[in-house]
Amino acid sequence: MDHVQLFTDTSRACAKLITKRYSTSFTLGIRTLDRRFHLPVYSVYGFVRWADEIVDTFHAHDKAALFADFKRQTYEALEIGLSLNPVLHAFQDVVRRYGIDREFIDAFLLSMEMDLDDRNYNQSLYEQYIYGSAEVVGLMCLRIFCEGDTALFDHLREPARRLGSAFQKVNFLRDVRSDYEERGRVYFPGVQYERFTDEVKRDIEADIRADFEAGYAGIVQLPRAARLGVYLAYVYYLKLFHKIRQLPATTILGERVRVPNNTKLLLLLGSYFRYRLARV
Questions:
Q1: What mean pLDDT is predicted for residues 72-82?
Q2: How far apart are CA 13 and CA 42, in angstroms?
Q3: How far is CA 41 from CA 58, 177, 232, in A?
Q4: Where are the domains of the chain?
Q5: How many whole angstroms separate alpha carbon 19 and alpha carbon 100?
Q6: Alpha carbon distance 267, 273 (integer Å)
Q7: In angstroms, rounded to a whole number, what is the distance separating the alpha carbons of residues 162 and 135?
Q8: Residue 270 has what pLDDT?
Q9: Which of 103, 81, 97, 215 has its CA nearest to residue 148?
């Protein structure tokens, strides 16, 4: 038995387990991709999830020190092609196999570092944070889906960024209360938590709608093996966005809007039939 391969396979299995434990919606989306994409995308999610956990969860510890060590281990894994941290080992393997750009990883880690500080975001920081925390994650996945087709990647790069931006902004809108109360953050530039009104909410929603429209234009051009999974994520976030749009700002500040699991399954079925009918 090749024990190096066994270690890599086990590391990938760890990333898959992390995804299943942390995100039912993301797991559903991955399972609708062609099987060859499952483990690579799980590996990307495991890396992203672990970094996010460090900056958002371990309040009783020195998060800056923990993150600095995680960052050091990440670059070491990328340099030598091995990590004893299974999440990082699985991730570096995907980075090498699919040629994921180092710039995407740098931008992601920088955005996670930004979360170590409580702050209000101006327009420049807001755009920088969204690019690093969400858009580059979509670009990492796009590298996987394009399987070395650089022309296709370049063609779909901007729609992939816009789709990632839409997803992140919906998260910000859904979590506006918890981000402020638990982490001292207001991501939307120029928005004061105490003055989060219906008018402010409508302006944010108009920006998100434009991102969704631009992102959808890229989904329909994805390789067919990846299209259904990305479309399902789009449908899920669009459903969440529509629920948020129907509620006043005071409700958003009072409760966290969710899409129930049974609704997620219905969205999956509807997405599948649209896909089979070649309507997406």
A1: 98
A2: 9
A3: 25, 30, 15
A4: 152-279
A5: 20
A6: 10
A7: 7
A8: 56
A9: 97
Helix, strand or coil, per DSSP, at residue 62: coil
**pTM for the whole thing?**
0.91
- Residues contacting residue 46 through CB under 8 Å, at least 6 positions apart: 14, 15, 16, 18, 19, 87, 90, 91
Q: What per-residue confidence (pLDDT) applies to 272?
A: 47
Measured torsion, CA atoms of residues 238, 172, 218, 274, in degrees rounded to the nearest 10 = -20
276 contacts: CB under 8 Å, gap ≥ 6:
none
For 200-259, write each residue's pLDDT tens digit: 999 999 999 999 999 999 999 999 999 988 998 898 899 999 999 999 999 998 888 776
Spell out the alpha helix ranges (H) of the chain: 3-22, 24-31, 35-56, 63-80, 86-98, 102-114, 123-130, 136-146, 150-174, 176-183, 198-219, 224-245, 249-252, 261-276
Measured on CA atoms in the order 171, 101, 107, 211, is the torsion positive or negative?
negative
- Does CATH place domain 152-279 in 1.10.8.60? no
pLDDT in tens, 107-158: 999 999 999 987 778 999 999 999 999 999 999 999 999 999 999 999 999 9
Tokens of 205: 């929603």
